[in-house]
Amino acid sequence: MSSTFNLTNIPFNDHVMVLYNNDDDYNNAATNLINDGLKNGFHCIYASVSAHDSKSSSNISNLSSNIDNYKENIERDELRIVDFKPYYESALNLDFRPFKKLKKELEETLNQRKSEGKKDGILVFADAACFLSHNKQFEECEILEWWWNETTTEWRQNNQNITVICPHPGQILNDPLLSETIRRIGSMHTITIDFNCYIDNKKHYDYNLQKISKSQEYKNKKKNKKILIVEPEPDIQYIYSLFTRQHGFKESDVNILENGNQCLEIVFSKTTAVDHNNDDNEYDIIILDSHLPDISGFEVARKIRDRFPHIRIILTTTYSLDNICDIIDSIGIKNQDVFVKPFNFDKLIAVIEEER
After folding, report:
1. Residues with Cβ < 8 Å from 289, sequence gap 6 or more?
2. Last residue of a domain, which of 197, 217, 237?
3. Closest CA to 43 of 8, 6, 76
4. Does 157 share its domain with 292?
5. Rounded to the nearest 10 degrees, what angle do helices 297-307 and 260-270 cross at?
6. Rounded to an integer, what distance in angstroms lies between the CA atom of residue 355 and that of residue 34?
7. What is the pLDDT averaged over residues 303-331?
8. Does 8 reside within a domain?
C-alpha cells in the first residue's frame, strides 16, 4: 500500500502529531517524511526507541531499504539515526537533560549548515512520546510533548527552522475514555495528521490534516487563582512550571520558591489581614513541601495558618498520611489536601481547579 504524504502542508518550526493505526502506518510515515525531507535538502533525523531493536519492524535495518540513497545520505551527514531508548527512559523519570542536550546539538547543526551554505532546515522524527502513550504513561507523555512544544515555539521565535514530528498510536488515543488526554496532547501540536481515512478508489491513505490552534480555549482560559509553590527539588519545580502552564495558569500567577523562609517572607509581605480579599495582593493556594532545606514545611504551614486561616494550603510529603495525621489536624490541613510523593500531577491540578 503506497502513500502520498509529503511536507507540502507542514510549514517549518511546526510540532506535528501523527496518529497511526499500525506498524505499516508508522513505517510509511517515517520513511515518506524522511525521503521528502532529504529530497528538499533538509537534514533529517530518525530518533526512535526501536532504531536498533532487531525485533521491531521499525528498526532502521528494516526501514533503510525504503529510504532514498540511505547509505550515501548517512555518509554525507544528511541523515542521522539516534537511539532514542535512553531518552525514553529519561522521560519516564521526568529527566529532560538528554533532550536539552539534543536541543543544543540541533541548534549547532543548524548553524553549521548555514555557515556551509546548505539548506536551512532540520526535520526530526522522534518517537519517545509515542512509546510513552503506547505504554499508557500519559502523564509523562504530556510533559514531554509540552517540552517539545515549548522548544519548537522558541525555535519559531528565533527563526530556527527545525520541525519535530511525533507519532502516536491512534488505536490507543482514540479510545473515548481518553478524549481529554488526546485533547491535551493534541493542543501541544500545530498540526495533527490522522491515518483514519482510507480511500479505496485511490488505493492510498488520505492524510487528514487538521490545524490545531495554539490558542485553544482550555489552554488560554483565564485563571483567577494565584499559586505559590514551595519545592526544594529543581526537577520537580520544572514539572510544576510545565503543568501549571499546560493547564492554562498564567506564568505571572504562579510563583515557585525553594525554601521556607522565602515563602514566609513573601506571604507576610504580600498578604495582609486587612486586605485579604484583594486578589492582587495575596495567594489563593500555597503548595508546600514538608521537607525544606531551612525550616520544616509543617512549621511554615503553621505560621501561615495562624495569621491567614483563609489561605488554602496543599501539603506534599514523603511521609505516610497515618504518620502525620495528628500534625496536619493541628495545623488545619484536610486529608484531601495532602499529596504523598510520588503523586499524580493531574490529580493535583484537579484539586487546585476545584471551586471552594
Report:
1. 230, 231, 232, 297, 315, 316, 317
2. 217
3. 76
4. no
5. 10
6. 48
7. 91
8. no
Residues 283, 308: Cα–Cα separation, whole Å: 11
Instruction: Please indicate, yes or no, whether residues 247 and 168 belong to a single structural domain of this protein.
Output: no
The span from the CA of 332 to the CA of 315, in Å, is: 11
- Give Cα separations from 80 to 39, 87, 160, 225 (angstroms): 15, 16, 19, 46
Q: Which of 230, 157, 153 is nearest to 187 (CA)?
A: 153
Asked if pLDDT for residue 210 goes beyond 60, the answer is no
Among 217, 239, 274, residue at a domain's last position: 217
Q: How far is the C-alpha of 49 from the C-alpha of 58, rounded, in Å?
A: 9
Neighbours of 262 (CB within 10 A): 16
CA distance 349 to 339: 12
Pick from 310, 317, 303: nearest CA to 348: 317
Task: Quote the pLDDT of residue 153.
Answer: 87
Q: What is the pTM of this model?
A: 0.64
Q: What are phi and psi of 17, to 5 degrees?
A: -110, 130
Query: How would you class 108 by CB atoms within 10 Å of its CB: exposed for 0-12, middle for 13-18, buried for 19 or more?
Result: exposed
Secondary-structure breakdown of the chain: helix, strand, coil percentages, each rounded to the nearest 5: 45, 20, 35
Q: State the DSSP H helix or E strand holding residue 224, giving kind and residue range, or none if neither.
A: none
Q: Are residues 20 and 165 in the same domain?
A: yes
**Backbone dihedral angles phi then psi of residue 5, each to the nearest 5 degrees:** -70, 140
